[in-house]
Amino acid sequence: MSRVLVIGYGNVLRTDDGIGPAVAACVAQRCAAADVEVLSLHQLLPELAEPISQARQVVFIDASIDGVPGTIACWRLLPGPETEAAGPLVHHLDPQRLLELAQLLYGHAPAAALVSVVGQDFSLGEGLSECVRHALPDTVAHVDTMIAASSP
Amino acid sequence: MAQQISINPVTRIEGHAHISIQLNDAGEVDDAHFHVTQLRGFEKLCEGRPFREMPSLTARVCGICPVSHLIASAKACDELLAVRIPETAIKLRKILNLAQMVQSHALSFFYLSAPDFLLGMDSDPAKRNIFGILEREPEMARGGIRLRQFGQQLIETLAGKRIHPAWVVPGGVNEPLTPEKRDAILAGIPEAKATTQRTLEWFKSILGDYREEISAFANFSTMFMGLVGPDNTLEFYDGQLRMMDAGGNIINPNIPPYEYQDYIGEAAEEWSYLKSPYYRPVGYPDGLYRVGPLARLNIAERAGTPLADAEMEEFKQLSLQERMSSFYFHYARLIEILHGIERIEELLHAPDILDPRVQATASANSPEGVGISEAPRGTLIHHYRIDTQGIMTWANLIIATGNNNLAMDRGVAQAAKHFVKGEKIEEGMLNRVEAVIRAFDPCLSCSTHAVGQMPLHIELLSPDGAVVDQVQR
Fold first, then answer.
1. How many domains in chain B?
2. Domain that holds residue B133
């Protein structure tokens, strides 16, 4: 049976940019389902295309810089470039590009969503700012709900 | 009026850099420089730390090459312990180091440079990426991604995680290999080997299309430095540190690790935070030398594994003068990937590879340690001094990319003089100057021990320093 892939990504040494890995850690701790895999990553890389293509759903969790700090937003994602100008792709990808890569390379891009949390502080440092820390439980709950809703 | 071109940032390399091209009054390229604009100063950070932290601490120099630093650092720490490292631990470290080489070379070739070869140096920069390869040659894109994945997965299987693993420790490694892990790694070997062989055949078939680039991409006579095995084969973990002159003569067959500073000096230039190592007996700047895949293949007589031996024999049929072109770094990189996969397979079949005795333990027994290994980009040196309590009092790191700094700087000037015409930067012109740097696959986070990505900026300057044109990506 295909699985749900939860990918929390960001730089944990850049304060609120670490919200993705923080949510991933909480989800991994709470979720015992065998068909759920949780990854905590610094950034998205092309090698993820293969496991993504094998999942029935992917949930990305990332920090956002636009909006009121602590705001949680959920976005449905479709494969394709985030912007027209893809740029000189070096070491990281956005989720849509990764889905596109999964589709092109392996013939399948699963249903996907991005859960984002607006950060307040992206300076050097470990730990989350207060408002983002307060948003953590609700963000985890959002992800839990999405996992539950995707059960076959 | 003479002018200056600026390329800032340089793209598809590891770190942050900038190229400036100076034009003379006739509008011709007078000079060009490669500037590295990031600084962190890791050596100073290490002072005051317990030496046992050094492998993990110095691995943080870079997110691309943590394994290379782990290996060189652990070797320096082994010297501080003054113990004999278990043979199995050495084999496991070698496998990890080769896995790092495979994944790093795969990233350099397939992600960063292959778009130039497959889509053309003058192609649309928005398409010149892995997606462009995917559109044109999906099998190559898939193969490249999976080859890098093979190396990354191997690192994770052995060391627990891909970035900043803590498995390599002073005295050995902290966990033996299990039969399940060995078999999982071996299962990936045939595909990795086939991808590399297929890519090598393709790359050799297109070399004829790049005669101009071969002639002008940092193509000049230099010395080469690198490790070689006792039978003059490719060696990445240990061996003799050797220097070869531009005529192919071995001028120093075995630089003793503790005497490296008698042979390698480090100069500083005002235009870059990256220091410029040079061969001290010749002096600065004529003591310019190159390291990395091209240097290793020029210095070693053969690879030491069957498939790579055959490829290396073919490579060596090029004249030494031809093998001076830095464009051939790409060719050498592919041969090294093939060798790395073969050597990993060979090491995994060693009778003692599952031996549980993988770490020697001791207190610090020596005040000073030097560790030298080959990183994907070339020779890497870690040198530590500690006090009687095992606290770091001094560190010196000579990084693979740094060794190539003088050659990259000179190579940029050569390419700019050949390809840049007039006062306006054309896309293909810009890309070729960048591609010279890309051939070396520099890791500037490592080489300046600083954090960052590497976009590039090219500036065209007049003799009075005014910026006439610039491109930033």
1. 1
2. 3-212+349-472
